[in-house]
Amino acid sequence: LRTRRAQTTSSPIVYPQTTPSEITPAKPSPAPAANETATPRAKFAVALTRQEIEDDFLAMMGRRPPRKPKKRPRYVQKQLDTLFPGLWLSEITADMYKVNENPEPAK
What we know:
By secondary structure, the chain is mostly helical. It has a domain at about 50-85. The protein is built from 2 helices and no strands. The longest helix is centred in the middle third of the chain and has 12 residues, at about 50-60. The radius of gyration is 24 Å and the shape is flat. The termini are far apart. It comes from Opuntia streptacantha (Prickly pear cactus). InterPro entries: DUF1639. This is DUF1639 domain-containing protein.
């Protein structure tokens, strides 16, 4: 068996200090005018790509993510299953359920 590697962090994480006076309130986005063409909205994605996960982990922790993710607690997984039923069915898409507008004539 292989021996376990010790987890080492090269330096402690230092968070920048901000005072309440430095924080600016968020400005509301202007409402689109009626005559302007609406830009297509970005698609909502539930899962991040491996590259996005690695970039976020590097920015927060200063090291790469572990190869095997930690298992979620059972109650968290049940909550996710109720919020997103069928999320684990990656091969099923909405295109599989397209209905033809013109039904076939009866024989």
